[in-house]
Amino acid sequence: MTVSTETYIAAGSLSGSNDQSRRQRRTFPTIMISLMTVAALIAGWTALSLYQIISPIFLPSPLSVGRSFVNLVTVGFVDSTLAQHTGASLLRIFAALFASVFIGIPVGLAIASSRVGKGIFDPIVEFLRPLPPLAYLPLIIIWVGIGETSKIVVISLAMLPAIILSTVAGVKSVSSDRINAARSFGATTAQVLRHVTLPSALPSILTGVRIALGAGWSTLVAAELVAATRGLGFMIQAAAQFLVTDVVISGILAIAAIAFLLETIARLIERRLVPWGSRL
Amino acid sequence: MGTPGPSKAFAVSILSFENVSLDYGAAAKTGKLVLGAINLSLRADEFVAVIGRSGSGKTSLLNLAAGFIAPSNGRIAIDGVTIDRPGADRAVVFQDDALYPWLNARDNIAFPLALRSVPRADRFEAAEKLLNHVGLPGAGDKKIWELSGGMRQRVGIARALASSPRFLLLDEPLGALDALTRGKMQELLLTIWSQSGAGVLLITHSIEEALLLATRVVVLSPDPGRIAADIPVSFGREVLAGQPVRTIKKQNAFHSLQETLTDLIHDEQAERAA
């Protein structure tokens, strides 16, 4: 999210007209405003904990959170280091992403390109889409057990609608001229799909992947509620039960940092794969 | 092309509209036709320009020839063989270039060859040749979004030529270009037509363009689209012979034809208003 706001602001300042540029030179760069906001928040946090306005049990000082973070990295919490917790969570996220891309893109293609496909899959997607993952988590556990599979299934189900719907949107927005051009050069239906429809829909599909990653992270904590022994979500919940608030906050910061990192990587991949983006 | 005598009639393909009419979806119920009883034949050594007001069914005519849509009645055939789908013998150039941004200029041009599994080296060579042919030497590695509108259309034309079609179907390919670029592209179209041996069907809303390029100008009138006039012209040959376009446009013959065609299209308007 931060990345996108910055991009918009950067684009805005580039297109600023001449009479604005003088004022802009005097004004503060936006990134500095953001950094100052963060600094102010940390200062406020320090003050609150330093003068014991809020009990350290509820709000430990930034210093003790930092110390606990270092401790998480070196020693760990509930039998695993931060790297191991992160690894377990990332593994689930990526397994789920792989599964939902593998299923979601063909389903999206079927919905977008065939009346029968739309008839079959549309009600299922519309049923699944508004459901909160926590609602169907117990059912998934009853069906596939408390092992790793149920966690991946739950995260996949949360990711699927984003992938499917973005594929549908992408395929539907392919210009008919592009398709007709290929047909007029003698392309078969399969060739049109492979060489025109899919690459045309790719920008939309990649946007869907980014949205799905977001949905995946928000489902992760719920998925690790039951019978997990590792994972960032599990770590936060275990810490909460023992009222180890500094670990809870460290865990939240770790998730935020990783989500931000993934978003940035996803954007880099997007720029690499679809450099034409919105230009064409 | 060089074959002498009567055998030439067999060598040149003919694209023919035989009693073709077309209605669209809801219009079918009211019996309203987009095109009614079109009879038109286009030889593969002709350059036919189709003009007419918007709504006269120009683009529908091209879509029928391309095989993108099927006629409601009648048939379209090449050398007597009915067309029922798009095919590589009829390559289309679109107003909105319809190039593929994930391919560079060279691979866009080689696209029709890739569909036929032509080996990579041969595709490369053919594309480079076509790049030169359309006046874009050395631009093969350029991304589509790095090209100007005129350059994109050049790539689009080269891509259509790569298909080695018998007929080139041009759907207002110069419609979105500025006047200067347009002039250069018109000369390119003429050169390509004279060298490729493919028949050209050009849809345009510019009477001047039709007169400068075509060997025949077909005027469509609307409601339903039908052929109001089919006039042979020859200014294109003068352009090819190196006569400046400006002097051609000053000729009386050019002026009077321009007026005749303007009147033909205008009369329709008056008729509709009445």
UniProtKB/TrEMBL annotation, chain A:
Belongs to the binding-protein-dependent transport system permease family. Keywords: Cell membrane, Membrane, Transmembrane, Transmembrane helix, Transport. The chain crosses the membrane at residues 31-54, 90-112, 124-146, 152-171, 192-218, 238-262. It is a multi-pass membrane protein. It is found in: Cell membrane. The keyword Membrane applies. Pfam families: BPD_transp_1 (PF00528). The lineage of its organism: Bacteria, Pseudomonadati, Pseudomonadota, Alphaproteobacteria, Hyphomicrobiales. This is ABC transporter permease subunit. Residues 86-270 form the ABC transmembrane type-1 domain.
